[in-house]
Each structure stands twice: as structure tokens, then as C-alpha cells.
Amino acid sequence: xxxxxxxxxxxxxxxxxxxxxxxxxxxxxxxxxxxxxxxxxxxxxxxxxxxxxxxxxxxxxxxxxxxxxxxxxxxxxxxxxxxxxxxxxxxxxxxxxxxxxxxxxxxxxxxxxxxxxxxxxxxxxxxxxxxxxxxxxxxxxxxxxxxxxxxxxxxxxxxxxxxxxxxxxxxxxxxxxxxxxxxxxxxxxxxxxxxxxxxxxxxxxxxxxxxxxxxxxxxxxxxxxxxxxxxxxxxxxxxxxxxxxxxxxxxxxxxxxxxxxxxxxxxxxxxxxxxxxxxxxxxxxxxxxxxxxxxxxxxxxxxxxxxxxxxxxxxxxxxxxxxxxxxxxxxxxxxxxxxxxxxxxxxxxxx
Length: 351
Hints:
The protein is of the alpha/beta class. The chain has a single domain (3-311), classed as NADP-dependent oxidoreductase domain (TIM Barrel, Alpha-Beta Barrel), CATH 3.20.20. The chain contains 14 helices and twelve strands. The strands form three sheets. It has an eight-stranded parallel barrel, surrounded by five helices. β7 (152-158), α6 (162-175) and β8 (182-186) form a beta-alpha-beta unit. α2 crosses α3 (66-74) and α3 (66-74) packs across α4 (103-117). The protein is globular and about 50 Å long.
């Protein structure tokens, strides 16, 4: 397994990490993802560690804490072998203090995560969403206190806009607080919005991308194709409304290109989609999930090889969508591009 620095930090993370959203399996969304119990989870962790996957990501909102609890049981006795990452800020209840990133909420969420995960520290503690009601100075001070207490090693965010990230980083710089080192983002062949603003920001500010839903909310598994009905067992029947939107035509254009490359390489469609992501700038780690051992082993086949430049170009062309304002002039007009060159000067290569 290849290891990469998480942004500009000293933390080394595997190129593939495991997303534990399938652990616990409670509620309409997470129950549809998977219902992995502690015994099954331990087997999946065994396979991950054998393959060099050492980072495991979860969140308090995943199955109302059950994911953290199951993950904690699965890594029990081998804490020194793993990197534990979790997230908070999304609502865990209906009370006024059950959501957001206030000082009291962050401290309580950290303590709850430590208890459920069975550990004395979190390697990476991330804000799951931006809390517009809490001053960023309060958020950063609370996280700093957790770092100073040794309960958190590194901090990051997830699902922030560019201005929200930059406002937080500027405040951290101004007040001498620890800077965020990671941004957990949605990024896939059918969802490349990350490239417009967040990727250039990450390059400039030293943020490592941890990619969630790299298979486009289950649409790039190889089971969804043009002219065929959605498989009866697909979780998209129950969860499509929760995930990133995509038009059918865009999806089918990408799947057609993936099928062509699968024919050329002998690789599975999900392996190709994951390999494409691993070649993108700023990507530190791609989260893979699995409901069973078969899915996990298939996803592990995304590493140890690389798409050719021609294959990357084919996928780039099939997945490209015009940028919105204010980004499109820099993409279309030579004068704008001279002042602000695109991040991707060649398919899959950093500027």
C-alpha cells in the first residue's frame, strides 16, 4: 500500500482508507448501507491491515454512534496499528446542544467518541459540516484545547465551502491555533465539482483531500448501465435521495468509458474509478466501504497499477462538465487562463 502525507502535515496515511459507514446499520440511510456487526467488522479490519490499510474513518452520526462502537470493538487490542478518524457537528438529537460545533458540543462529542472507540485519543477529528451559528474562533479554541490535552492529534473538516475553509484557516493563523490538515470531500468521476475551487485551495493551503463516496453513491459499481433497469438489490432504491445528484446521461457517458477501459485492462469498473481518483492532485486518501469481504477485496484491486495517460484522458473527457461562473472564463478564455492557470494542466497531473 502506498502511503501519502495528509496535506502539509507529518501524518502519513494509506492511499486507500476504510469508511465504516456500514458498521452498526441503524436507520433508513445507514441501515441501507450495511449492518456489519462487531465480529464481521473485525474480519474486515483484518483484511484491511493485511493489505496495508491502516486508517478507519467513521462519524458520531453514523447509525447514532453504533458505527463508532462497532469500529472500537473491531480494533480492540491493536490500537497502535491503526489511525482512527471520526467526525462530529451534524445533529445527534433534537436538543439545542445536540448539533453544531460549539465548545460544549465538541468537547462532549470528543469524549463520546473516545468512549465508543475504546481509545484515549483520536488521530483525526473532523467537523462534519460548517456551523454558521458558532464563531470560528470558538470552534478553533475548543479544538486547540483537545489537541493540548492529548485527546486529538490532528483536525480537519468535511463538506465545507471554499470561503468557510479559508475563514477558518485565516483565524487559526491569526490566533495561533492548529490549522486544519484535511478536507473530507465528495469527489468522483460523476462528481468533479471539487476541482473548481476546493482543489486549488487545498494546493495553496496544504489541505489533503480524503475522498468520500468515490463510486458516486454506488453508481460506479459496474451494476448500473445504459438501457438496463436498476438491480433489485441496489441500495440506490432507498438512498438515492440522500446522495449527490447526477443526470442519467452524464452517468451513462462515464460508465461507457469505464466499460471500454475495463475491456482493455481486465480490471473491474470500481477499480478503474478508484484508480483515476488516486492520480488526482491533493488526494491523500480515498475511502472505500464494503458490506462484505468480496466487496472489500475487489476495491483493494484499485492499487498496485496505474491507468495510462490515454485512459485517464478518456475518463476526463467523458466525465467533464462545464464549470459555472466565476470559474468558466479561466477554463475557456486564454487571457483568463494566463493569469490563473488551471490546476490540471494535463490529465491527472498536478500543475
